[in-house]
Amino acid sequence: MERSSRLLPPLPERLRPSTLSEYVGQRHLVGEGCILRGMIESGNLSSFILWGPPGVGKTTLAHIIASTLDREFITLSAVTAGVKDVREVIDRAKGIGGLFSDRKSAPVLFIDEIHRFNKAQQDALLGAVEAGTIILIGATTENPSFEVITPLLSRCQVYVLKELEAADLRQLLDRALREDVILKERNITLKETEALFRYSGGDARRLLNVLELVVDSQSASGEIIIDNEHVLSAIQQNIATYDRDGEMHYDIISAFIKSVRGSDPNAALYWLARMIEGGEDPLFIARRLSILAAEDIGLANPNALLLANSCFEIINRIGMPEGRIPLAETTVYLASSPKSNSAYLGIDAALAKVRETGDLPVPLPIRNAPTKLMEELGYSDGYEYAHDFPGHFAPNMEFLPEEIKGTVFYHPAENRQEDNLSAYLKACWPKYYKD
After folding, report:
1. Fewer beta carbons within 10 angstroms: which end of the chain, N or C?
2. Which long-range contacts (CB under 8 A, 24 or more apart) does 214-221 make?
3. 342 band by pLDDT with thresholds 50, 70 and 90
4. DSSP labels for 20-83?
5. What is the pTM for the complete model shown?
6. CA-CA distances (angstroms) from residue 96 to 17, 90, 92, 280?
7. Residue 3 — very low, low, confident or very high, per pLDDT cuts 50/70/90?
8. What residues does 190 pair with on adjacent strands?
9. What is the dihedral sign for C-alpha 312, 316, 317, 319?
């Protein structure tokens, strides 16, 4: 019996788990004693964002949590919903006569692809999340630090979901062959899983889609073989497909970023063309170019960030198809520029030190002293104005807290631009920057 004649949903939907006992992977979140399991068992649900690659169970986990706690489950897609939709959901959650009057009974609002919400849409959620009128569960494949506004991010925990491991994939595969209403009736022989698991890339949805593709590609009346040869044969016509909402999206943007980082403009243009031809949002590409310019080109060529920012603004004004030209120009420029991640490493080192040492006091000489009382308390006492000294540098000043004085976070990389920065820093701070 062919799937098209059954009018059944695809295998990933047929096999979507409805309880934690059926859920595969993410043991660091839902295992015994872990944070999300504890939240479910206690019933004390708070707003959070699930960040991870496609097909690792973000949507499924949100459904399971709401179902287990018997909460009303409301979904919005960030692709189609506007501010009006958000406000309507919040009004519904408030309930006429206080239907949802406390956090214990507040409905779950699940927003898929929350990174696609603009600032106004995210702002509309703040009051309801703060008051507990709704419990927000967002799902995103993009780093929330870049894509979610700070006030909303501060009201939500962020939980990172990981790609499924081989053992998880095998568990899912065995369950599909054993329990699916269609597959369990077929004469299926599982011989090899290497190609199946490799192509799935830790993505449960992709694994099940490929499994179904391999099964459907063979005769329904005879033995169906699952091995490397049949898997590769079945997917070879599909491998070039670009899916902006899921499977290939994650892989191709990764290939694009790594090509630019690896200084290969030809490969970068190819992956750019794949995204454009596949209908990718050009502003998404422009955002990635801006991040690349800061993270990977950095101080080796500061003009790269200016060009990337201009590209984003131009794309926002002119759209496509003309937008392909500034995208291509910026891609080639970034790929052909010298590379440095010194600023990226510097801020990460500084953040690590802040988390290690906490909120150290600001040294008195560099505190602001706008009032007489602050002056009497020693605020700004001993501060030396750099422009009063030769070379516009005060040699006796220190600017870090006493406890971490002399810590070096920024290490210039070896390139022409940063060689000049390095020489200047060595002249200013010979005790900290040495050959």
Report:
1. C
2. 215/183, 215/186, 215/188, 216/2, 216/3, 220/1, 220/2, 220/186
3. very high
4. TTT--S-HHHHSTT-HHHHHHHH-----EEEE--TTSSHHHHHHHHHHHTT--EEEEETTT--H
5. 0.55
6. 33, 12, 8, 41
7. very low
8. 226
9. positive
* Cα(261)–Cα(255) distance, integer angstroms: 10
Please give the Cα distance from 117 to 53 (Å, whole number): 18
Is residue 89 within 8 A of residue 36, CB to CB? The reply is no
Cα gap 342→115, rounded to integer Å: 27
More reliable by pLDDT, 222 or 50? 50
Q: So what's the pLDDT on residue 19?
A: 87
CA-atom Rg of the chain in angstroms: 27
Scored b (16 or more CB within 10 A) or e, 32-53 reads eeeebbebbeeeebebbbbbbb
Instruction: Determine how many CB atoms are found less than 10 A away from the CB of residue 26.
Output: 23
Tokens of 205: 């949805």
For the stretch 64-122, pLDDT in tens is 988 888 888 888 877 677 788 888 888 887 763 344 445 567 888 898 888 888 888 88
